[in-house]
Amino acid sequence: MDEDKARKLHLDTIAVGYGYDPAGGQGAAKPPLYLTSTFVYPSAEHAKETHRIFFEGPRPGEVVEPSYIYMRLGHPNLDMVEKRLAALDGAEAAAGFCSGMAAISTVFMAHLKPGDAVLHGLPFYGGADGLLNRVMAGFGVRGFHFTDGLDGEAMREAAERAMAAGPLRLIWLESPANPTATVIDIGLAVRIAGEIAERQGVRPLVCVDNTFLGPLLQSPLACGADLCMTSLTKYCGGHSDLLAGGVSGSLELVGPLRALRTLLGTTMDPQTAWLLLRSLETLSVRTARACESALKIARYLKAHPKVAGVTFIGLAEPGSREHDLMQRQTRGTGSTFSFRIQGGEAGAFRFLNALKLLRLAVSLGGSETLICHPASTTHYAIARDRLAEAGVTEATLRLSVGLEHPDDLIADLTQALDQV
Ligand SMILES: *Cc1c(COP(=O)(O)O)cnc(C)c1O
């Protein structure tokens, strides 16, 4: 199947088989797993040619057969995942990494240098926050944030502060954001990136962390973003049994990531790539089921007297800013959201300890329903005033709805809420 044909197919169809041709796998219906760290060259000349193509790229018009060197530089299962992910994200190219954080680290290191400023929404993933505002800060990169991702003036005001510190090179948007599930208008941020370009002469890259919705429910590149990062550990992997990350975009922006990952050692391994190819096949049915159950559970929680509030685009009122954004930017609600419980940390802990079916664990997007208390777990290392600004309180819980029967989940929530 060539690329043009893939563009005309539904994403659900691409997710099933795109990127693997049985003709290249001795007719095997499913992709073979190429479990090898190194690849044998038929001749010394071929070895030199393979390295020339790896380091310099093909000559204009040169057609090259896939050839491999060493697992960290690339391997057949990685090629398959990257083709499928690029097609799903509507991108020219994609790069696979050994975790979402490996992908984020590689993007930051490839596209930022000392003196640069980064604009980001708050909250965002605790690991990305730590990497940017603690580690990258040590290399002279500074982060600036806004909290209302639907308010252009708030974004522009934060962009002003960023530009005053150095060239604003990267706008990092996580929508919906971890852990609260608040949303950001990607198109609005892209327009602001254009305004910034006129002011400072260089356009900041707009990169979206698409982990919460994944490629089937949100296409950041179609909204004008330059790069789309996804923690494939979550919904794409879907079974809480692997760690992986992917970045999609133009070859011009993805190429440097591929080059850098071979030096950082952040490449995705064959076993993980193989598992992902398998998991992506069921992404659309898993997504549909989880979204439906999440909506049911969110409605139940919202009506419960011991729940102080639910943050979920699935519950956005028609006419609200969130609802308008959802219509423009997403094809579904996702199934991870947050809610606040009466009684602060003590109430939240009593509730968590009483749950029998829902599992108390970090991570999200797996087949099983997971719940966690972000302030004491995923966002433990984030300063308290910063968390408060991000809208994460001692009473906030993050729920990732899985594939169990929703009535069983609601029954468990009911008995645990009775004990708060
Ligand atoms: C989990 C997560 C990441 C990090 O991905 P890993 O695969 O765990 O490294 C990044 N962003 C978001 C929104 C996440 O939920």
Spell out which ligands are present: pyridoxal-5'-phosphate
Low confidence ranges: none
Number of strands: 12
N-to-C span: 56 Å
From the structure provided, what is the oligomeric state, counting identical versus distinct chains? single chain
Please state the overall shape, judged from the principal axes of the Cα atoms: globular
Largest sheet: 7 strands, mixed
List keywords for this structure.
420 residues; alpha/beta; Aspartate Aminotransferase, domain 2; Aspartate Aminotransferase, domain 1; seven-stranded mixed β-sheet; 16 helices; globular; binds pyridoxal-5'-phosphate
Could you walk me through the main structural features you see in this protein, from its secondary elements to its overall organization?
With 420 residues, the protein is an alpha/beta fold. The chain folds into three domains: 37-70, no CATH class; 76-280, 3-Layer(aba) Sandwich (Aspartate Aminotransferase, domain 2), CATH 3.40.640.10; 283-417, Alpha-Beta Complex (Aspartate Aminotransferase, domain 1). Helices cover 43% and strands 14% of the residues. It has 16 helices and twelve strands. It has helices at 3-8, 11-17, 44-56, 76-89, 100-111, 126-135, 152-165, 186-200, 214-217, 251-264, 270-280, 283-303, 321-329, 344-354, 384-389, 406-418, and strands at 93-97, 117-121, 142-146, 168-174, 205-209, 227-231, 245-249, 307-311, 336-341, 359-360, 370-372, 396-400. Strands 1-7-6-5-4-2-3 form a seven-stranded mixed β-sheet, with helices on both faces. A five-stranded mixed β-sheet has the order 8-9-12-11-10. Helix 6 (126-135) links the parallel strand 2 and strand 3. The longest helix is centred in the last third of the chain and has 21 residues, at 283-303. The termini are far apart. The structure holds pyridoxal-5'-phosphate. The site of pyridoxal-5'-phosphate has 16 residues, from helix 5 and helix 6.
